[in-house]
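Incident review: delayed structure delivery

Summary: a single-chain prediction request sat in the queue longer than the usual turnaround. Root cause was a stuck worker, restarted by the on-call engineer. No data loss occurred. The affected request and its eventual output are reproduced below so the record is complete for anyone auditing the incident later.

Affected input:
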Amino acid sequence: MKLLYSRNPNPRLAVATARHLQAPVEYECAAPLAPGQAARYRPLNPALRLPILVYDDGRSLWEADAIACRLSREAGSSFWRSGADEPAMIQWLSWGKQNFFRACDMVQFEYVTKQRYGLGPVDAGEVQKGLELFAESAALLEEQLSGRPWLLEDGMSYADFRMASFLPHHELAGLPLGDHPALRAWYARIEALPAWSDPFVGLDAPELPPVAREA
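Output delivered after worker restart:
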């Protein structure tokens, strides 16, 4: 199998997951939206987004969560929970998408993505909305994580990786992680994992452009 990736949050999540699981995949940095590349990648993912997992027979699977599920099953791992334990994990994936992920992404897009690629000035209104949603969702996570080290009671799972997927640039984005000690300690545990701290080590992954802060 081959995992097509870039340094953006969801592809980064997929690479970190594959490396954590020690999945038997090859890694290939890709750019489906680059000029002249659409025809090559559209058969693998009609949305032209990464990550994409390409099977040995040429079929493909896209979206980070689906790829994590497949790789975990391939590895015989409980990282992606199954059976009676799966709904509790999916609960966090579902809640996070509409709350914590969205809050982090709103702020990161304004302070990091737009500045990195010259997409315009920071929209202060969007930042404020993102920070308000961050405060609300981070408070819920703080309460949950104050009593246990991971989101699920029985240990680390893919839900922890998914919840952390927009936090690698939290300092650049100015997300107030330090206001939530249990949340900060949880993320420190994730950052201590080699697969998460530097998932691209040894891979052909071009560095992202620096963030050009507004004067």
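Verification: The mean pLDDT is 96.
Action items: add queue-age alerting; document worker restart procedure.
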